[in-house]
Amino acid sequence: MLEKLTGTFSGIIKSLSGKSTITEKNIEDTVDEIKMALLEADVNLRVVRRFVNSTVEEAKGEKVLKSVNPGQQFTKIIYDKIVSMLGDKKKNLAIKGPDTTSVILLLGLQGAGKTTAAHKLASRLKKEGRRPILAACDLVRPAAVEQLSVLGEKIGVPVFKEDSKDAVKNAEAALRYAKKNQFDTLIVDTAGRLQIDQEMMAELSKIKNATSPDEVILVADSMTGQNAVDIAKSFDEQLGLTGVILTKFDSDARGGAALSLKTITGKPILYIGTGEKTEDFEPFHPERIASRILGMGDVVSLVEKAQETLDQEEAEKLQKRMARNEFSLDDMLMQFQQVKKMGSIQSLIEMFPGMANQNVDTSGMKKNEAIILSMTKKERANHLIIGPSRRKRIAKGSGTTVADVNKLIKQFEKTKLAMKKISRNKGLQGKLMSQFGGGKFDFS
Predict the structure, then answer these.
(1) Per-residue model confidence (pLDDT) at position 319
(2) Of 340, 319, 318, 341, which Cα lies nearest the Cα of 331?
(3) Rounded to an integer, what distance in angstroms lies between the CA atom of residue 75 and that of residue 50?
(4) Alpha-carbon distance 315 to 251, whole Å?
(5) pTM to 2 decimals?
(6) Which residue has the higher pLDDT, 268 or 323?
(7) Which region holds residue 162: left if phi is over 0, alpha if psi is between -120 and 50, else beta?
(8) How buried is 104 (Cβ within 10 angstroms: 0-12 exposed, 13-18 middle, 19+ buried)?
(9) Distances from the Cα of 152 to the Cαs of 189, 243, 278, 342, in angstroms?
(10) C-alpha closest to that of 246 among 266, 263, 261
């Protein structure tokens, strides 16, 4: 995500970090470079001007020019300004406690991904301990109600729907049902159009009046850049938005919508869609996105994703096997499968500091999985028995080459050796676990 912007900013930060002194000329040249990068990213011109003026003014002060480490000071100013553009701090949903029913109204143009966002949001709230219900009020798009029903069933969240062709009555009935059956969150999926029109706005206004929502959220396609900002302004002027969900954020190479929305509309970005899966939906943290843009990674999000998706019980079993030096090819296969649950390898790599814009060949992991799955149980338990004839058979069974099998076994042996070192080094274990929420590995 935001590859073009990250590539430019990473280069700028790298050049700044190596400077022991910074002049006003350095600052002007760097800011010009940033200005061009933001304009190419389709950031609103007003936002760019504000960023440039405030950055130059602050960077030319004594704090940077006379500091011990001017490169770092200048970098921090750029980071702070980007965080400010993105919205300063993460904004939580303004929903009530579990004893009453909160209403979240989702709006947007057709094709922005409202229905998908509705079920992703419901899934996240369910994991957080809420009891959500979805209301199918998009009666314009063919099969929209059916799509929401399928998605709701997939995540175990009920979908309220009626045969009525009146979206307002459907929304009213859904709210009554939610209250009666003690659902604490009603998420209303509404109809969109290919463009804003008064008929759509009138219907949405009636739904809003009928349900008195706690949140009125625009679902916008981040890849449409400044167009998403213009759409947000139009919806806000007529309906009063409380926030925005940006979909297809993982495919957005530029970032114009994310960097312009808060400044132009004053509305926070609440969530971003980062892929096709239900779990590819995360709260928007301005400081973390700013860190990614500058090529500094996002270790906190990586750790959170690991904690959400990795199986604790399996991890503990692996720890004990490592302690006994019993790490096997089956364990390696399990690691591959666990990592896949966290999302695409490319998105995970981007969260590591200094790894921005590093294209990773993910076909290697699939190939290695196929190789291990072509082995017998005995071979997975003891790789030493895998001689030339067995390697040839495994290669044929996995659709790979003997060289691929040799490479995997060599990689496994290195991993096993590394695991053995970790199991004997309590200090290293502590350092590793401090990165993962302060927990501890028990290798005893």
Answers:
(1) 65
(2) 318
(3) 18
(4) 32
(5) 0.72
(6) 268
(7) beta
(8) buried
(9) 12, 23, 11, 22
(10) 261
86-130 pLDDT tens trace: 998 899 999 988 889 999 999 999 889 999 999 999 999 999 999
Q: Which of 197-211, 325-339, 355-369 has the lowest mean pLDDT?
A: 355-369
For 39, phi then psi, to 5°, come to -65, -40
Sheet hosting strand 215-221, strand order edge to edge: 159-160, 132-137, 185-190, 102-107, 215-221, 243-247, 269-273, 281-283
DSSP state of 359: -
Higher pLDDT, 336 or 204: 204
CA angle 108, 44, 347 (to 5 degrees): 70
Element (H, E) at 240: none
Tokens 């004594």 appear where? 62
φ, ψ (nearest 5 deg) of residue 107: -125, 165
Q: Say if residues 160 and 149 touch (Cβ distance below 8 Å).
A: no
d(CA 29, CA 261) in angstroms, rounded, equals: 27
Tokens 């919806």 correspond to: 235
| Section 50-67 average pLDDT | 78
* pLDDT value, residue 376: 95
Query: CA dihedral defined by 191, 197, 202, 208, rounded to 10 degrees?
Result: 50
CA distances from 362 to 326, 348, 358 (A): 27, 11, 12
Question: Per-residue pLDDT for 393 more than 50?
Answer: yes
Query: Is residue 439 very low, low, confident or very high in pLDDT (cuts 50, 70, 90)?
Result: very low
**What are the C-alpha distances in Å from 92 to residues 69, 125, 263?**
36, 12, 18
